[in-house]
Write a structure and sequence with these properties.
Blueprint: E1 2-4, H1 5-8, H2 18-27, E2 31-39, E3 48-58, E4 66-71, E5 78-82, E6 92-96, E7 101-103, E8 109-111, E9 115-117, E10 120-122, E11 125-126, H3 129-132, H4 154-157, E12 162-169, H5 180-193, E13 218-221, E14 229-236, H6 245-253, H7 261-273, E15 277-281, E16 289-293, E17 300-302, E18 308-310, E19 317-319, E20 325-328, E21 332-333, E22 346-352, H8 355-364, H9 370-377, H10 384-399, E23 402-403, E24 408-410, E25 418-423, H11 424-431, H12 437-446, E26 450-454, E27 458-463, H13 473-484, H14 505-519, E28 523-524, E29 530-531, E30 548-549, E31 560-561, H15 566-577, E32 584-596, E33 599-611, H16 628-641, E34 648-651, E35 657-665, E36 668-676, H17 678-683, E37 690-696, H18 697-703, E38 720-729, H19 734-744, E39 749-758, E40 767-776, H20 785-803, E41 806-807
Helix pairs in contact: 6-7, 7-10, 8-9, 11-13, 12-13, 19-20
């Protein structure tokens, strides 16, 4: 929010430097993010002086140019070539001297230099209005008052104004400070703490009166909860023209472009007092009636920007007697009812609209206006009539208007000021320091918070209507503290803390797995739970009807709660790959959100993403891409670490995988993983293979127990390794062979590993070859060859009998 210091000084006549004032505003909670110098005319007409044209002759080499001699007041007339048709001897004119910088309408400057034009020297430039930024005319040079002193700086002639503009980072709760008057009110309280007592100058409306009652508009509000207060007045005999220079300067300083006197005055009062206003061309309102109502869903309405919009049945609309829409209340005006240069009478509106309704409408139509910004946060309902009178008087003064009706004021239920009791004890406790009671009362008075009653323990207070954010005792204490000054609170150099111990089972299990993954080179990510609704089109397993949709989404990219962690993870993958970081390992603990039969469900997940090389590239490490079995090994190790080592594999039913399997215990699915489909990766611009795993974390937490670690002494006797090459049926899995081996020899067999598989034309059809190693060990003695041969023969016979295996 931009605040003009010159404008602020209309309310508080302070001589403080802008920087010092900015520091005080920041201390008061109105954080000043920057201070910018603004000029009513860019460059402030520096180098422009009043010149006197002494002679004017036709240019010898150009029909449209003239050669003049001009007195600049320094005793030495200069020659200037001028192409204006109205230049003549004896005139007083603005002259840009050598070295002066002039600016065009885009703010780009060019420097005046000594030169020759068609062979004649020119030592400056006689200027037109638009060349100085004083108007739009370029028909000829400006002719100044004959009485002006030659050589006088043009900045003094045209009263160029320089201003300091504060950029305030306003927090949403401070709706009371959304105007120059509101900021001045806070500044007065801050200055009072610095023993500077300044009067807060309020614009007077005592001269308001009705000239003649010739044009009355009836006001009817359909739903009082949508518009608790609505004021309006008609003003006739208006002449729409440029607004006075001082109003234009105020608006330009805060970044607004002046339009005409009526529109500029409504904008001026908006930024002066914080009350939005809207002016309708009275001749375009049928039936001399204003209806505040909602219209049917899908009603077409063209706004001031000439965009046709479809209205919602919840939008508050300003309509005429025939229910024709004129304006989206509190947000944006209509193209057919606005003020133009042909307008001679207006209906001026000042209202209080429901903040929630205005915010929904503004978001629904993607409109963010100065009016909606204030209505959304809650304005002062008691300011409505005062602001209307203030604007009406300005229109009367600068547009020649006449008040043609009494003020229509729909205000059926007056909103009473809020009552709060402040306990001194609670104030001292929350502030952390005892502030003198008289200081507290002085601060409250400076904030216009009235003291109704006082006891030994505290104060009974009435909160002014413009402080919509002060509703609790804690809010009052915060107000006292910010005005008193956070920097004035003493603090101890001793830090007291307590060691917290988290015995939560879920946290423990997460930490175990997180540490394991981090040790493997994974990085933890945390994505936004809000995502794009369009992602439901990428998988048939994700249904749009089961999604949780935001009522007021910040954008289309943050419209729904995610039903899968896959897509937000792929966004992170794409972001890194686009920045040349191709070897990635991510994990995320997060939730998915679903809606089933009007009931909402949240599920916890752990997801893994692996893509690119397994290890960081190095001269002594061979580059090797991550693959399906690499991810499977990581997953199996995680499950084993959690004591879930008897899982059963089955094909995954998720359509996001090109190849995928599921691991589970009984009917409970623990994890699904595989290679993500290329069609999905293409949507994210990813060209390399991505492996994805999705753990059902809620199920895992139910199954995980406290797995006890058994510690045994290292064996003193060596282990023996023997291999078998077996010809087996191709349908037999290694797991079957593995289980049979341990059933055959339970005591001395320690490990069974598959180290080679061969299937090819050298083997009979339907057969495959397994090369299997067996690790044997006796922890009490060294195994003898005879004993080892006996065990291996027993294993061979078991495989031949149960699997019809043939020794190769």
């Amino acid at each position: 929010m931009k605040i003009s210091y010159n404008w602020l000084k209309q309310f508080l006549q302070t001589d403080w430097e802008a920087v010092k004032t900015g520091e005080l505003l920041t201390d008061l909670g109105l954080e000043v993010e920057g201070i910018e110098t603004k000029e009513s005319i860019k460059g402030s007409l520096k180098g422009i002086v009043v010149g006197h044209v002494l002679t004017c002759k036709q240019h010898p080499n150009a029909d449209r140019l003239k050669v003049t001699t001009v007195d600049l007041g320094n005793g030495e007339p200069v020659q200037i070539v001028c192409g204006a048709p109205n230049v003549d001897a004896g005139q007083k004119v603005p002259v840009a001297t050598i070295g002066t910088t002039l600016y065009d309408d885009k703010g780009e400057g060019f420097k005046i230099k000594k030169g020759k034009i068609r062979g004649e020297e020119s030592h400056g430039m006689i200027c037109a209005e638009d060349e100085l930024g004083l108007g739009a005319s370029h028909d000829g040079i400006m002719i100044l008052d004959e009485d002006l002193e030659v050589g006088k700086p043009a900045a003094e002639v045209f009263n160029i104004e320089t201003d300091q503009v504060f950029e305030i980072g306003l927090t949403p709760n401070r709706s009371d400070a959304m105007s120059h008057f509101g900021v001045a009110r806070d500044l007065k309280a801050g200055l009072l703490q610095n023993d500077i007592n300044l009067e807060l100058i309020t614009p007077s409306v005592s001269d308001f009166h009705v000239d003649e009652r010739t044009l009355r508009f009836d006001v009817e509000v359909d739903k009082k909860e949508l518009a608790p207060r609505y004021c309006g007045i008609t003003i006739t005999d208006i002449e729409v023209k440029d607004s006075p220079e001082w109003i234009q300067n105020r608006l330009k300083a805060i970044g607004l472009s002046p339009k005409n006197n009526v529109v500029d005055i409504t904008n001026y009062v908006l930024h002066e007092l914080g009350q939005p206003l809207h002016a309708f061309d009275a001749q375009k309102i049928k039936g001399n009636k204003i209806l505040v109502k909602t219209l049917e869903e899908g009603t077409k309405f063209t706004t001031l920007d000439d965009v046709e919009r479809e209205l919602s049945a919840e939008d508050i609309m300003i309509c005429d007697a025939d229910s024709n829409p004129l304006c989206i209340a509190g947000v944006f005006g209509g193209s057919k009812s606005g003020v133009t240069e042909h307008t001679t009478s207006i209906f001026l509106e000042s209202a209080y609209f429901n903040p929630v309704s205005v915010r929904k409408t503004a978001k629904r139509h993607a409109l963010n206006t100065d009016a909606s910004f204030r209505f959304e946060r809650g304005i002062d309902i008691n300011l409505t009539e005062y602001a209307l009178k203030r604007a009406a008087l300005l229109i009367e003064e600068f547009a020649g208007g006449k008040m043609a009706s009494d003020i229509s004021d729909f205000y059926p239920e007056k909103i009473e000021d809020f009552q709060v009791f402040l306990s001194y004890e609670n104030a001292y406790r929350l502030i952390g320091q005892e502030i003198p009671k008289e200081t507290i009362k002085k601060i409250l008075a400076s904030l216009e918070i009235k003291i109704n009653s006082e006891t030994a323990g505290g104060l009974g207070l009435t909160i002014p209507s413009y402080r919509t954010d002060v509703q609790r005792e804690a809010d009052i204490i915060e107000e006292i503290l910010r005005v008193y000054g956070y920097n004035n609170i003493e603090f101890s150099h001793k830090l007291n803390t307590s060691i917290s111990f988290d015995s939560n089972k879920e946290t423990k299990v997460e930490n175990i797995v997180a540490n394991q993954l981090s040790a493997l080179g994974f990085n933890e990510t945390m994505a936004n739970s809000l995502t794009k609704a369009a992602y439901t089109d990428l998988s048939e397993n994700i249904n749009e009807e089961n999604g949780v949709t935001m009522l007021n989404p910040l954008s289309n990219d943050l419209k729904v709660l995610r039903q899968s962690l896959l897509f937000s993870g792929l966004e992170s993958i794409a972001y890194n790959i686009n920045r040349k970081n191709n070897a990635l390992k991510f994990y995320e603990f997060g939730k998915t959100y679903h809606k089933y039969n009007e009931k909402y469900q949240e599920d916890k997940h752990l997801t893994l993403f692996v893509t690119g090389n397994k290890t960081v590239e190095s001269w002594n490490v061979t580059s090797e891409n991550s693959d399906f079995f690499y991810l499977k090994g990581i997953i199996v190790n995680i499950l084993n670490r959690l004591g879930l080592d008897n899982t059963k594999a089955s094909p995954s039913k998720q359509d996001v995988f090109a190849e995928g399997i599921s691991l589970g215990l009984g009917k409970m699915k623990l994890v699904e993983f595989g290679v993500v489909k290329r069609s999905i990766l293409k949507e994210f611009g990813i060209k390399q293979e991505v492996l994805f795993a999705d753990f059902n974390w809620d199920t895992i937490l139910k199954l995980v127990g406290n797995k006890k670690v058994k510690v045994t002494e290292l064996p003193k006797f060596p282990a023996v390794k023997r291999d078998l090459a077996l010809l087996l049926d191709s349908k037999i899995e290694f797991k079957t062979l593995y289980n049979l081996a341990f059933q055959s020899e339970k005591k001395l067999l320690k490990a069974v590993d598959l180290f080679d598989v061969y299937e090819g034309d050298k083997l009979p059809e339907g057969k495959k070859s397994y090369a299997v190693s067996f690790l044997l060990q006796d922890e009490t003695k060294t195994l003898a060859d005879k004993q080892i041969d006996k065990i291996m023969q027993k294993l061979q016979q078991t495989f031949e009998k149960n699997l019809e295996a043939v020794l190769r």
